[in-house]
C-alpha cells in the first residue's frame, strides 16, 4: 500500500523518553528549568475562553511580538517575515515539501541532524552529505554545483558537536549555493552569534528557530522561520491550515515576552556548561568546545556505548551516537547544577 521510498527508508528515531523508571534526563537537550510563569497564565486564559474555535492560522500575536523582539537583528523585519510551526521540525518539513521535488537532491553536513535524511527520504529525494573539515567549517564540496540540488541544510550550532560557522562563512556558503540554504538555529540562543541578520541580505537564506530549548517549551511544540516576505508567502501555501494550536500560540507569545526569565535561565545553562566541560576533561574525556546546551565527548580509554549503558543503569540518560565512518561518542545535555553534579559523580565512579 505504501510508496516504495517509505517502505525502504529508516524512520527518524527520537531520543529516549522513558515512561517508567525515573531518570536524570540529559539525552534530548531539554531545558532543566521551568518555563516562565507567564506561559502558564497565558494558557490558562485561553482555557477559560474555551477551545471550541479554531486558532489563528498565522499565529499573528506571536509574529508581531517576535518581529518587535528581532528588529535590531533583522533590518526591516515585520510580521510578514515570520511563519510559525509545530516545533522547528514542522518548519523543516514545510521547506522540504516547498523546495524539493521527488528525485531532487538535498545536501547537509556530516555529522549533523539525522532528521534531514529522513525528510529527503519521505519526499522521494536523494541526500548528499559533506564531511566537516577538522576546524568544523565546510569547504567547496558543500557549494558544488549539481543540477539536481534543490535545498541545503546547515545546523548552526551543529548537533552533535555544538560547533558554529560564523555568519560571514554562512553568507559565503549561501552566495555560492545554487539553492536555498536553511540555517537551522535550534540552539542559537546559547551561542555567541547567529545568522538572523543574513536573511535581509539574501532571499535564499532562511533561519529556523525553536522555543523548545532556550524557552523551556519542548512539550508545547512551537518554532518559527525568518525569511523575506515573498518567501514566507509561498511557504504559507504549504503549511497545514492550523499547524499551531491556541495553547501553543498563547504560551509561545508569553514566553518571548518574558526576556528577563529567558536571560536568567540561559545564563545559568552557559555557566553550568563551562563547569561541566572542564570537569569532563578532568575525567579523561575529549570535549569539543560547545556553543549549544549540550557537550559532545569521548573518553580516551573507555567505550562510549558501554559508558552510556553504565550511566543508564545508574539512572542517568545521555545520548549515545555513532556516525559510521566518523566515530561514536556521547552527547550530554547541560542540566541543572544538581543534575550535572550527579552525572559527574557517576562518571567518576565508572571511569
Automatic annotation (TrEMBL):
Q: What class of enzyme is it?
A: transferase
Source organism's superkingdom?
A: Bacteria
The prosthetic group or cofactor this protein requires is: pyridoxal 5'-phosphate
Its keywords, alphabetically, are: Amino-acid biosynthesis, Aminotransferase, Histidine biosynthesis, Pyridoxal phosphate, Transferase
GO MF term set: histidinol-phosphate transaminase activity; pyridoxal phosphate binding
Pathway involvement of the protein, from the record: Amino-acid biosynthesis; L-histidine biosynthesis; L-histidine from 5-phospho-alpha-D-ribose 1-diphosphate: step 7/9
Residues in coiled coil: none
* Reaction(s) the record says it catalyses: L-histidinol phosphate + 2-oxoglutarate = 3-(imidazol-4-yl)-2-oxopropyl phosphate + L-glutamate
Q: Which GO biological process annotations does it have? A: L-histidine biosynthetic process
List the SUPFAM superfamilies hit by this protein, alphabetically: PLP-dependent transferases
Domain Aminotransferase class I/classII large residues, every copy: 23-347
* InterPro entries given in the database record: Aminotrans_II_pyridoxalP_BS, Aminotransferase_I/II_large, HisP_aminotrans, HistidinolP_aminotransfase, PyrdxlP-dep_Trfase, PyrdxlP-dep_Trfase_major, PyrdxlP-dep_Trfase_small
Which positions carry N6-(pyridoxal phosphate)lysine? 213
This enzyme's EC code(s): 2.6.1.9
- Spell out the PANTHER family in the cross-references: HISTIDINOL-PHOSPHATE AMINOTRANSFERASE, HISTIDINOL-PHOSPHATE AMINOTRANSFERASE 2
Q: How does it assemble?
A: Homodimer.
Q: Which family does it belong to?
A: Belongs to the class-II pyridoxal-phosphate-dependent aminotransferase family. Histidinol-phosphate aminotransferase subfamily.
NCBIfam families per the record? hisC (TIGR01141)
> What is the name of the protein in this document?
Histidinol-phosphate aminotransferase
What phylogenetic lineage does the species belong to?
Bacteria, Pseudomonadati, Planctomycetota, Planctomycetia, Pirellulales
